[in-house]
Amino acid sequence: MLTIQEIMETITMVQEEHLDIRTITMGISLRDCADNDPRAACRKIYDKITRLAGNLVPVGEAIAREYGIPIVNKRISVTPIALVAEGSHTDDYLIFAETLDRAAAEVGVNFIGGFSALVHKGITGGDRKLLDSIPAALDTTERVCASVNVATTKAGINMDAVALMGRVIKEVASRTADRDGLGCAKLVVFANVPEDNPFMAGAFHGVGEPESVINVGVSGPGVVKRAVERVKGSDFGTLAETVKKSAFKITRMGELVGRSAAARLNVPFGIVDISLAPTPAVGDSVAEILEAMGLERCGTHGTTAALALLNDAVKKGGAMASSYVGGLSGAFIPVSEDAGMIRAVEEGALQLDKLEAMTCVCSVGLDMIAVPGDTPAETISAIIADEMAIGMINQKTTAVRIIPAPNKQVGDHVEFGGLLGRAPVMPVHRFSAADFVRRGGRIPAPIHSLSN
Amino acid sequence: MSLLEKDEKQGKRIIITVIGPDRVGIIAGVTGILAKYNFNILDISQTIMQEFLVMMLIVDSENSTIDLSELKNNLADKGTELGVRIDAQHEDAFKFMHRL
């Protein structure tokens, strides 16, 4: 029994409040593609991806038409390439990135994630080659995304890797300087990385995952914002309840789309990632939800509390709506991809330090942040180290996707276009952390890692 | 008001929504297409919300001669002609969102 009001509510969400399914991501294991000969390995990788994901885009489009809900992205995640390429006799993994790029273009997906390494406790030979190949890979390929996990609650923080990633990020920025450092938008540094995340740029197909799987990422900040606006002035219990109900409805659409896609592609359904993922479109902003709660601007005092309430209510509503929830699941706060965040930075309401505090209570980390191009590599590493510490100590995922914008200063902007948006360049602290970063070794795992 | 009370035809039903300024010929236009391609109308409901006509039809596609995406195209063309927005969606899009 459906009422006319319920039908109208669904239609309003899609047509006026930007409800969409952000991504259907097909995870593909490439563990059986390893080969001594790198060219043979790449041939196997290309064949497997194009065979399994050949129908991903048409199936996604058919589902979008039938249910009348946009599915914005169709994407692919693969086994971390460091694990696959390690068996090949080559020092340069660029050929693997190029293969992924060609396979992604062939099946028509805009991003493929998994040029990745897991180095939270140490770096193997293959990991090192992958890390060294990241700048060239992100410069010369269009669709490949890279991610590196440098910390976990169980292992601590690999500070050698953190120091290295500061330099890698600087090099990626400099190699893609003609595109405002675009390569850095395709590179994420993680703590406690989830193995089933469908969202780019951090998606890869984890080692505990099946041969192939469909994961879905929902969106819908606009829907939550409208719902919050309708309960203006009510108490926090009502506010939390309202967000929960909206999250439930959004997630149900993800569950429906995920199950349909998995059935039609004949692969298992993995998880729904119940994240609120903003886009640069006005009204599709997480910052605007926080402002609708009663903050004059996102970033002012009270922002962390508002985000904590939002993130928790989204999880509670979403968890009821889906049998399998996974990935990052919470609110995203990418600066360049959120019109409200951009405005808050431009007006001086939101600074890097407040963003860092916000990452303590939401699902990701410092995401799509532009900083001055002359920021030292050690400072970038120190920013990463802070974020990794938050993830490690709080047993949660955190990440850093930072763009040292080539030749730009505070007040300038970087422009990426599309879903990646535009970011105002934000100031960083001018005091050095170089001696700290250069110590090397690992920060030990916290006491609560000893849970066995 | 409750639609979709009949439980037979589960999984074959399509919900058609018409939203726009009221005018002569909207029902005739929509039902004409449905009859032409053999969609059986199970229920029709309409209301005026603010100044807009909101009409909903639940149709059974079991014996239809075209699929959902072709129906959508036909209805969208008719909507342009009539100055209203006409959409057709599989019933699951609504049932899933509001029910466990």
Automatic annotation (TrEMBL), chain A:
InterPro entries: UPF0210 (IPR007841). It comes from the Bacteria. Pfam families: DUF711. CDD domains: RNR_PFL_like_DUF711. Homodimer. PANTHER family: UPF0210 PROTEIN MJ1665, UPF0210 PROTEIN SPR0218. Belongs to the UPF0210 family. This is UPF0210 protein LX24_00405. It comes from Desulfallas thermosapovorans DSM 6562.
Automatic annotation (TrEMBL), chain B:
Gene3D superfamilies: 3.30.70.260. Belongs to the UPF0237 family. This is UPF0237 protein LX24_00406. CDD domains: ACT_1ZPV (cd04872). Residues 15-89 form the ACT domain. It comes from the Bacteria. SUPFAM superfamilies: ACT-like. PROSITE patterns: ACT. It comes from Desulfallas thermosapovorans DSM 6562.
